[in-house]
Fold this sequence. Notes:
This protein has 449 residues and is of the alpha/beta class. The chain is built from 21 helices and eight strands. Strands 3-2-4-1-5-6-7-8 form an eight-stranded mixed sheet, sandwiched between helices. Strand 2, helix 6 (144-154) and strand 3 (158-160) form a beta-alpha-beta unit. Helix 7 packs parallel to helix 8 (199-212) and helix 14 (331-343) packs antiparallel against helix 16. The protein is flat, with a radius of gyration of 25 Å.
Amino acid sequence: xxxxxxxxxxxxxxxxxxxxxxxxxxxxxxxxxxxxxxxxxxxxxxxxxxxxxxxxxxxxxxxxxxxxxxxxxxxxxxxxxxxxxxxxxxxxxxxxxxxxxxxxxxxxxxxxxxxxxxxxxxxxxxxxxxxxxxxxxxxxxxxxxxxxxxxxxxxxxxxxxxxxxxxxxxxxxxxxxxxxxxxxxxxxxxxxxxxxxxxxxxxxxxxxxxxxxxxxxxxxxxxxxxxxxxxxxxxxxxxxxxxxxxxxxxxxxxxxxxxxxxxxxxxxxxxxxxxxxxxxxxxxxxxxxxxxxxxxxxxxxxxxxxxxxxxxxxxxxxxxxxxxxxxxxxxxxxxxxxxxxxxxxxxxxxxxxxxxxxxxxxxxxxxxxxxxxxxxxxxxxxxxxxxxxxxxxxxxxxxxxxxxxxxxxxxxxxxxxxxxxxxxxxxxxxxxxxxxxxxxxxxxxxxxx
Length: 449
């Protein structure tokens, strides 16, 4: 989402690497460039003007230090000002320890409310150890309720389904009554998609809000909407009180201005972001970490948290022991490593959080799917003893996986290198591990390091 903003800011910062603060002409050009970058990133003009003005004031404070590096000063100033915009009051979700609570999800049609309801339910259940009850009042979108019901059951989330009921108010009242009598902690309600000119839905959502008295009312915003998203909060604030924002489709190629614009104008915190279609592609919003990613500083803290929360520690320990004692890896281990990468958001998500990459180009996740398909097309003996894979076996594996023979050979070569590398890294430091790690990655991302 922030790729455009991040790319241009990093480019500007690198360009002025050796410049000094005492050059007024340089500072003026930098401010003009920052203004242009923000406008191109779809940030509302009012927010752009305030942001540039604040940076200009901060620059004046540093002018007396003539020998200071302009590059470092700019990073420091931009980082602080971006955090000031994004860090509005409480970014934490409000979850009382003992009190039963309702969370209301509202938003326009097509912003991803249904998927968001499921992601949020699973996150709160697993991370905050709350018993979740999920219900949908979206009776207008065809199959919306049955879709959410199937996905909820698949992911072990309790769901209240009302067959043949077409009244959102009835569903709300009945669900609230059952929730109060149950042992569930949180009731999450997915509401009908709002449209600007549908007074009936507007009236129903207002009633749902008044009936449930939610502890959190999260506005679901599509990050691809750009500046038009600013109109939505103003429209909704007339009928209810929004407590926070859930930003969806953050993994898309959007310009990123919506986050800065909404936080600055609406004065509401972004609490969560959706980073992909998978149910686990949800992150708690940390303004300082997001800003670090934007400026290319990296976000290792979030990466470590994802590794801890989304990777099977028992299986991971087996791999660690193999590294520790210099034991042989097989292709089953290699396949598990690919799955670990997928579980923590894919290689793109990892790259975005790493601070030492020169340039963060687009990466095709399909290449990892190909590796998975190739290994899955092998039999048990081939996976445990890759050295037996000869030309005829390579031909069979390529046909079974829908890839070329060259692709199969590349996977085996990558595996052999990783196997040798794992034996060598025992006792070495993390820098050397990362230096060697790039050689087992697909060719199109080796040049990122």
